[in-house]
Amino acid sequence: MIKHSRQRDAIRDNLMNRCDHPTAETVYMDIKEDFPNISLGTVYRNLSLLSELGEIQKISTGAGPDRFDGNVKPHCHFQCKMCYNVLDIPFEYPEELNAHASKSFPGIIEGNSIQFYGLCPNCMNTH
Amino acid sequence: MIKHSRQRDAIRDNLMNRCDHPTAETVYMDIKEDFPNISLGTVYRNLSLLSELGEIQKISTGAGPDRFDGNVKPHCHFQCKMCYNVLDIPFEYPEELNAHASKSFPGIIEGNSIQFYGLCPNCMNTH
DNA sequence: ATTGATATTAGTAACAGTTCCTATTATCGA
DNA sequence: TCGATAATAGGAACTGTTACTAATATCAAT
C-alpha cells in the first residue's frame, strides 16, 4: 500500500515542470530549496518508484549518472559525447520496432529504447 | 603510440571467440586461466581502448555492469528484466535511423543504439 | 644483442553513483 | 485519537569503474 508523501509530490512535480533530463543529484538540489532536509536517498527511492509506476522514465546513458524524464511518451534521446548533455530527438517514433523484433525473437519484448550520440548543437559550434 | 601487449591480445581474442556479451569481470575470470596475475584494471583499460579503436563494442544497459561485444556490426540487443542476460536481436538493422534523426536535429549524429527489454526465452518458460 | 625511451602492467587505493539500514516521523483508516 | 505501517533523514555500505605508482614489457635505434 502506497501512502502519500510531500517529498514524492515535489519530485514528481519537479520532473513534470521541466523539459530537460535531470540526474537524481540535480532533482535533489532543486527540491532542497523547498525541503531543506530532504535526503538524496529519498530522491533515488522515489525516482525508482515513479519510474516503476510508469509516471516518469529512467534514461541510462552509459556515460555518467542516470537521467530522468517526466515525458513518458515514447521518444528518442541523444547524448552529446563532449558535454554529456541529453536532448530529445523530435522525430516520429518507430512504433513498429517491437512488433518487428518480436518476429525474430523467441522471448517477450515489452519495450525498447533508442539512443543517439554525437555532438550537440552547442558543442558543434564551439569546437 | 600503441605498443603490443599479450594481455590485450588475450582480451581481444576472448571477445572474438564468443557469442555472448560478457562483463569485464567475466572476461577477467576467463583470462585468468592463461594469465593468472592479470589485473582487473588491465581488463577494464583494454576493453575501453579496444572499443575506442572500434575493435569491440561496449553495451551499457542500465541494469548491472557494462557488457562487451566482439561483433561490431550494427545490431540490436535485448536485456531480460529477470535474469539480466543480454542477447542479440537478429533482425535487419534500421540503417536509415541516423539519417532520419539528423533531419530533425541540429547537431551531429554519429551513431545510435537500440535496446529491447522484456523476458528472455528461458525466463519466459520457467515462470 | 644491448640500450634507452616509454607504453603497459599488477596491485591497490580512490572514486562515483546508487542502494541499504535504522531510528524517527508522517500518513491515514478505524 | 489511536494504531499500524509506509516513508523519511542521515549515513554507512556496496558495486562498478577509474586512477595512481613502482615495476615490467615492448620496440626502435644503436
Provide an overview of this structure.
- 2 copies of one chain form a homodimer.
- By secondary structure, chain A is an alpha+beta fold.
- Chain A has 2 domains: 1-72, Winged helix-like DNA-binding domain superfamily/Winged helix DNA-binding domain (Arc Repressor Mutant, subunit A, Orthogonal Bundle); 73-127, Dna Ligase, domain 1.
- In chain A, 35% of the residues lie in helices and 21% in strands.
- Chain A has helices at 6-16, 24-31, 40-52, 97-103, 121-125, and strands spanning 57-59, 67-69, 76-80, 86-89, 108-119.
- Chain A has a 3-stranded mixed β-sheet with strand order 4-3-5. A two-stranded antiparallel sheet of chain A has the order 1-2.
- In chain A, helix 1 packs across helix 2, helix 1 crosses helix 3 (40-52) and helix 2 crosses helix 3.
- Chain A is flat and about 50 Å long.
- At the A-B interface, strand 3, helix 4, strand 5 and helix 5 of A face strand 3, helix 4, strand 5 and helix 5 of B.
- Strand 5 (108-119) of chain A pairs antiparallel with strand 5 (108-119) of chain B.
Q: What is the mean predicted local confidence, pLDDT of chain A?
A: 95
Q: What is the number of independent domains of chain A?
A: 2
Q: Tell me the fraction of residues in β-strands of chain A, as a range.
A: 15-25%
Number of helices of chain A: 5
Cross-sheet strand order for the largest sheet of chain A: 4-3-5
CATH class of the largest domain in chain A: Mainly Alpha
Shape of chain A: flat
Helix content of chain A: 25-40%
Q: Using CB atoms under 8 Å apart, which protein chain pair has the greatest interface?
A: A-B, 40 and 40 residues
The CATH topology of the largest domain in chain A, please?
A: Arc Repressor Mutant, subunit A
Unreliable stretches covering 5 or more consecutive residues of chain A: none
> What structural category do the secondary elements of chain A indicate?
alpha+beta
Q: Give the CATH H-level superfamily of the largest domain in chain A.
A: Winged helix-like DNA-binding domain superfamily/Winged helix DNA-binding domain
* Main β sheet profile of chain A: 3 strands, mixed
Secondary structure tally: strands of chain A: 5
**Series of secondary-structure elements of chain A, N-terminal to C-terminal:** HHHEEEEHEH
Distance between the termini of chain A: 52 Å
CATH architecture of the largest domain in chain A: Orthogonal Bundle
Oligomer: homodimer
